[in-house]
Write a structure and sequence with these properties.
NPHP4_C2-like; Ig_NPHP4_2nd; eleven-stranded mixed sheet; Ig_NPHP4_1st; 1336 residues; ten-stranded antiparallel sheet; Nephrocystin 4; mainly beta
Length: 1336
């Protein structure tokens, strides 16, 4: 049985009275009914009870809809309260029969056992819940809970003829004393969104699966998908070339149908109607609609079928031709959903008419409609285009159209072969194609569509053309050129599936493996002889440079068995050189600075480093030493290079983190961004594998690396519209240009140190927080503490006592948090008043010394006594609270869930229901037992898991039931997705101080952040706490696996799609995970950023969609994205860091090789600044003034730009305005170039040898087309391959000038197209020549 048939047969609805159906009003009212508990003296302890809910019409004495049955629940008695059976089940339904006589009937059924092992059901009573008031309006839902009185007997008594409405008038119904049902009935407006999926008068539970709805979102344990229903995304289907074939042939079938219909009419008509003629065919109709097993999603479409013989005229039909009913148009189904219970229903009906005799004066005709066949098809939307053949059904079987269907042929009759397939009732055949209208790679199954064998259908025949989703990228726009069916009055606009429009960016990171050395041994010797600091091991012996160890030889056991568990990681940046292939794309920086983050240490922004050339010069590749620049701009006098140290001491690591650190070194890479220290533009990024830092039992290791610093430029997205948008590959690929700018030389070293033995016990790895002993419980040995004076422990009292003793030298220690600013201010005022009283007249004469001292002591004692009386209650309450308080310290890392359990004990001798209150949203109680079990497996905890342990109140606070003296374990989870402000400040990172080159960074102190305190209170009735848990949260920095930088116009939304790499390539992904590829989940640290991902199916890639709101220029927004492979988001496998640079946008339309002039308006800051404009492409963008100039305070000044692009297309150029004194970014612009290709007037082709050489000289001629002399300027798009003999020339009118060309040699074979632009004196293009150079 298919899923559609199972859902259809299980949810058959009894219709209401026919009179109700005629008079019901449009519109339906949705209800939500909660049956909470059954209580009363009539319940038996231990017996099982069931509730049944039905709809009843008291006017017509008729039950309708479908009876809903609850699960069986046992009754429990707790004296003095009567027996109670708790149900807490929610029922949803909607009805349009808004009449006061419509009610819901609740029946209480008891289950009793039989002697044969079976069970019997006994009706114990029933009650009526009115749905509508006297004015046909829904009952007032103001009262949350109501008590429903119950009547003796069975609800079948409502069908008795003497039953009267209302119920109170019936003297035969007796009320069950001291018994009632607690329930809540309210209208439920969110249910109106799924009226097209849920039939009227069908009672369903919130836990029941409704085809077309997504599972419950959020709290999975609740599982109520109807409380806030969410619709599945529809998929559009097209049915083409539809035909219906009937057994044994169309002519015989219709002839037999007419004979039976006429014979039936003769038995029904009256004698006076015998003059009417025989029945004739008028139309053959086919109803096509989408059915979800419960109802039609939309009204079925009606199409007219015609015989095939009428369509094919004049041809030579073959055998069996013309024996089918065909549809000339195509069917468009936009409401299809990829759910197994969704099916396409076909119903074939004939329209007959009977007319009068030919001799009659007036011919009257009457129409008669008969359904003859129907079929259902459950498609597999992942199979793409296919041909489908379905068997038709008929006879006495229940169908979705709720009509009588013409019977199928008897088995005794002879059968024929229809296309080689024995189908007695006929077939419907069509060609299906789907259109998901999504432009990303859609993960749909490649399995073929098939019909179950029991239906007699054959497998679908795949067409020769490929599937519609073969890795294609389609546009979000609809196919506007395709003919749509005629619009109907009931058509409503449907939202298309929302998918991002951007082409996915591959998140593969930088290639960290390319660290090969291009310098010769002599150059390396001169480089290391420049005086860099020596790296010494723990025995003060220099560490020699060694080759990196083969990755295959890495052994985790060697790292664990190493006696030197302390790791001192040293990063030594030596030199930075220009790559030989860099060409002249941009100017080489004079100073640079670096940004990176190692492990969980705060991100580092180095000071500015000057690039200094060596005296001898390096022959192979020019490399310049890195020398630190002081704040005044002078070079540092210390050794060259920059050295940073990170101390990873196991004494500061969390339990088990040593293995994580070793795993981090083995699997991760360090990404380093290189910035221009003057222009603050990104030069490029490099990555180095950290695996050479694994010592593998050695005392120290040191390796030298030469990294490629590459920059990546993304061109704007170019999309296509219209019909081409739905074709495979219609979205043009994103233009990506990667260029290697230079090479960074650095040394990595790891020096082992013996681990310092820390006194005391190691930190406990237990996940269970023990409950406190409680108030008044004293250990066997008693508690010993030294008594101290009140003034020593209370700062406020000490301040009050010292007011009269100004001679006191030493002030008592103040207790933090007690002496606030307001109290200190009041005490100072009191001291001034007393001093004025002492100095005023009328005072008694000066007392002797001992009398004054005695009086002072008496006053002090009075103050102390008064203070003790005032704080006594507060102190006692605080001490009692401390006696029931337990503390747990959590080291929180972004995105990682910290799991622990709290042992909660009921100290009383009676049972209690404990309410758990948490004062911070990041700490939560784990309510789902599946999630609880998942975290226990991860942490290897052996404590038991209890099912259905918690109950949620209306305010969503969990409650747990505790028996007397019972102890249970409450699971907690702390998880934060927002970076703590203190951590953010540490990670934004100021530059290193004066001793940064020799500074040692310790993991235990870095990024500690501000400690957060969270209190959890466990309260019984009346708000009395029985236990308090205080969670101390210490934020820790997190590991950043990859960094992305995006430059975007200010105050606009950035929309990017990033393709996730295969899950098995992610560092930290589990090996051999059962069940195939896991689904990936993402969470963002900024709640204002839309970050989501979708699982497109097995074998398909997965993308992350980001939508970020940019700020004003030059703001930089920083956020993190955590990637998970488990649904409970326990620990991220990767954390990505994103930077969004907001720039002022300037659109420029220009022509390649031609100068376009424009200007920018600069606005001054409140203080005057000395600024300079820098550009990322100085060879294509000129600025005026090109040097440093003074920007007046709050003034306005123009900055003139000249743009001369070298190649056509869309691209970005960055422009920064920098304060040259403080090296701060004042403004930043993003120039969006839309460059056109100039008209090429002449083309040439030459061949040159590849692999070096001297180059080649060539000449071309140019004729001045003007009668007067003209001055021309020459430009080219490849100055690295072509140089001119003269950059400008002047030629008389009509004369010919010879232009000398010098072609540089090329290192490799291939073809290059070089453009030669000839511009006039205004730098406007006159002509453009194209030279095709073939290097061979």
């Amino acid at each position: 049985m298919s899923e559609w048939e199972r859902v259809f047969l299980r949810n058959v609805v009894l219709p209401p009275h026919c009179q109700r159906r005629r008079t019901r009003r449009p519109g339906s009212t949705a209800f939500r009914c909660v049956l909470k508990y059954l209580e009363g003296a009539a319940l038996t302890q231990g017996a099982e009870y069931q509730l049944r809910l039905s709809l009843f019409d008291a006017t017509y004495h008729r039950f309708f809809g479908r009876t809903w049955r609850s699960s069986r629940r046992a009754a429990h008695a707790a004296p003095p309260r009567p027996a109670r059976a708790a149900f807490n089940e929610t029922i949803y339904f909607h009805t349009s029969l808004n009449h006061p006589s419509i009610a819901a009937v609740v029946e209480v059924v008891a289950t009793a056992g039989k002697g044969d092992g079976g069970s019997r059901h006994l009706s114990c009573g029933f009650g009526l819940i009115p749905l509508f008031g006297s004015g046909s309006e829904a009952t007032d839902p103001a009262a949350e809970d109501r008590a429903l009185k119950l009547y003796h007997g069975t609800p079948r008594a409502l069908l008795h003829p003497r039953f009267q409405d209302p119920v109170e008038k019936n003297k035969y119904l007796t009320v069950m004393e001291k018994s009632h049902l607690q329930y809540a009935l309210k209208t439920h407006q969110p249910l109106e969104a799924i009226f097209h999926l849920l039939p009227e008068n069908l009672l369903v539970s919130g836990l029941q699966t409704i085809p077309g709805l997504l599972p419950a979102h959020g709290d999975a344990s609740k599982g109520d998908c109807l409380q806030k229903p969410r619709l599945m995304k529809p998929v559009t289907c097209y049915l083409e070339r539809l035909s219906v074939r009937l057994y044994p042939s169309l002519e015989e079938f219709e002839e037999e149908l007419l004979d039976l219909l006429n014979s039936d009419r003769l038995l029904q008509v009256r004698p006076m109607q015998l003059h009417q003629g025989k029945a004739q065919f008028r139309e053959r109709r086919l109803h096509v609609g989408v059915h979800n097993g419960l109802r039609f999603v939309q009204a079925p479409q009606v199409a007219v079928l015609v015989p095939e013989a009428e369509v094919v005229r004049g041809g030579c039909p073959g055998v069996g031709a013309g024996q089918a009913l065909v549809l000339r148009s195509r069917i468009h189904l936009s409401e299809m959903v990829p759910h197994p219970a969704f099916g396409v229903c076909f119903q074939l009906e004939y329209v007959f008419c009977s007319s009068g005799r030919a001799g009659a004066k007036v011919g009257l005709s009457t129409a008669d409609i008969r359904s003859v066949r129907w079929a259902i098809w459950s498609p597999d939307l992942g199979a793409g285009e296919a041909e489908v053949v379905l068997p038709l059904r008929g006879g006495a079987c229940r169908g979705p159209c709720q009509t009588l269907v013409y019977r199928t042929p008897t088995s005794g009759r002879s059968s024929r072969q229809v296309r080689g397939k024995h189908v007695e009732s006929g077939t419907v055949q069509f060609y299906v194609s789907t259109d998901s209208e999504e432009h990303l790679v859609t993960a749909l199954s490649a399995s073929q569509l098939s019909v179950p064998a029991r239906c007699g259908g054959r497998p679908l025949v795949r067409r020769g053309r490929g599937s519609w989703q073969e890795g294609g990228i389609t546009h979000l726009e609809a196919d506007l050129g395709s003919p749509d069916p005629e619009p109907r009055a009931g058509d409503q606009l449907r939202a298309l599936p929302f998918t991002p429009l951007q082409v996915p960016i591959a998140a593969v990171g930088l290639q960290a493996g390319s660290s090969r050395t291009l310098l010769s041994r002599a150059s390396l010797a001169r480089l290391h002889a420049a005086g860099f600091p020596e790296i010494l091991d723990h025995n003060q012996v220099p560490v020699e440079i060694s080759e990196p160890v083969d990755p295959a030889s890495f052994s985790p056991r060697l790292e664990e068995a190493d006696l030197l568990q302390g790791n001192e990681i040293i990063l030594q940046f030596l030199a930075f050189g220009r790559d030989a292939q860099d060409g002249v794309e941009g100017t080489w920086p004079k100073t640079i600075f670096l940004t990176f983050q190692f492990y969980r240490f705060p991100p580092v922004t180095t000071p500015r480093l000057q690039l200094v050339s060596t005296d001898a010069g390096l022959v192979a590749v020019p490399a310049q030493l890195l020398v630190r620049v002081n704040k005044d701009g002078t070079l540092g006098t210390g050794p060259p290079g920059l050295q940073l140290k990170y101390m990873v001491d196991p004494a500061f690591l969390r339990p088990g983190e040593q293995r994580w650190f070793v795993r981090y070194l083995a699997e991760h890479s360090l990404q380093i961004d290189v910035w221009d220290g003057d222009s603050l533009l990104l030069v490029g990024s490099a990555a180095v594998k950290l695996e050479p830092l694994l010592r593998q039992g050695r005392a120290a290791v040191r390796t030298h690396h030469e990294l490629e610093v590459a920059t990546t430029e993304y061109e704007p997205d170019v999309t296509v519209m219209g019909r081409e948008a739905l074709r495979h590959g219609a979205l043009r690929p994103l233009g990506v240009r990667v260029a290697v700018r230079g090479r960074l030389h650095l040394c990595l070293a790891n020096v082992g140190h013996p681990c310092e033995e820390t006194p005391g016990q190691p930190p406990s790895r237990s996940r269970v927080v023990p409950a406190p002993d409680g108030a008044g419980s004293v250990p066997a040995g008693g508690r010993v503490s030294r008594a101290r004076r009140l003034a020593e422990v209370d700062g406020e009292l000490a301040a009050a006592l010292c007011v009269r003793r100004p001679e006191a030298r030493l002030a008592p220690p103040a207790v933090p948090g007690e002496a606030t600013a307001a109290r200190r201010r009041k005490l100072r005022r009191m001291a001034l008043v007393r001093q004025q009283e002492d100095a005023g007249g009328g005072r008694t004469p000066q007392l002797s010394g001992w009398q004054e001292q005695r009086a002072r002591h008496l006053r002090d004692l009075q103050i102390i006594d008064a203070y003790r009386e005032r704080v006594k209650g507060e102190s006692i309450s605080r001490m009692l609270s401390q006696a029931i308080t337990a503390t747990r310290t959590v080291h929180a890392v972004l995105g990682t869930a910290e799991f622990f359990e709290f042992a909660l004990k009921n100290p009383y001798s009676v049972q209690h229901t404990v309410t758990i209150e948490v004062d911070h949203p990041e700490l939560s109680v784990i309510l789902d037992p599946r999630e609880w079990r998942h975290f226990k497996e991860l942490t290897k905890s052996v404590t038991p898991v209890e099912e259905e342990m918690f109950h949620l109140r209306d305010d969503l606070r969990p409650q747990v039931y505790l028996r007397p003296k019972e102890t249970v374990r409450i699971p907690f989870k702390y998880q934060t997705f927002s970076a703590d402000p203190a951590v953010v400040v540490a990670q934004v990172g100021a530059r290193l101080g004066a001793g940064a080159d020799a500074a040692t960074r310790s993991l235990g102190k870095s990024g500690a952040g501000r400690t957060k305190h969270i209190q959890v209170s466990f309260q019984v009735s009346g708000g009395k706490p029985i236990a308090i848990l205080r969670v101390k949260v210490e934020p820790q920095p997190h590991v950043v696996d990859q960094t992305f930088r995006f430059y975007h116009p200010e105050l606009t939304f950035l929309k990017k799609t990033i393709r996730l790499p295969p899950w098995h390539t992610l560092p930290g992904a589990p090996v051999g995970m059962p069940g195939g590829e896991p689904e990936m989940f993402v969470r963002c640290s900024d709640p204002d950023i839309i970050c989501e991902t979708k699982n497109m199916g097995p074998g398909e890639p997965q993308d992350i969609f980001l939508k970020v709101a940019g700020g004003p220029s030059p703001q930089i927004k920083k956020f993190f994205v955590a990637i998970y492979t488990d649904a409970w988001l326990a620990a991220p496998v990767q954390i990505w860091q994103f930077y969004l640079h907001s720039l002022q946008r300037l659109d420029v339309s220009c022509t390649a090789g031609q100068l376009s002039r424009l200007s920018l308006l600069l606005r001054g800051t409140p203080a005057p600044r000395r600024v300079q404009a820098f550009t990322s492409h100085p060879q294509e963008l000129e600025v005026d003034p090109d040097g440093a100039f003074l920007l007046p305070a709050n003034g306005i000044q123009d900055l003139y730009l000249g743009v001369r692009p070298r190649r056509a297309g869309s691209r970005f150029i960055y422009l920064n305005l920098v304060d040259v004194e403080s090296h701060q970014l004042v403004s930043s612009w993003l120039l969006c170039l839309a460059c056109r290709q100039p008209l090429i007037s002449k083309a040439f082709e030459i061949s040159l040898p590849a692999g070096g050489g001297r180059g080649c000289n060539k000449r071309i001629t140019y004729t001045n087309p003007y009668p007067s002399p003209r001055l021309y300027f020459l430009y080219t798009n490849r100055p690295d391959l072509l140089q001119f003999k003269e950059d400008s020339f002047e030629v008389a009118g009509g004369e010919v000038y010879t232009i000398g060309l010098r072609f540089a040699p090329s290192q490799g074979a291939g073809e290059e197209e070089i453009l030669i632009h000839i511009n006039d004196h205004e730098d406007q293009n006159e002509e453009t020549f194209c030279v095709k150079v073939v290097y061979q």
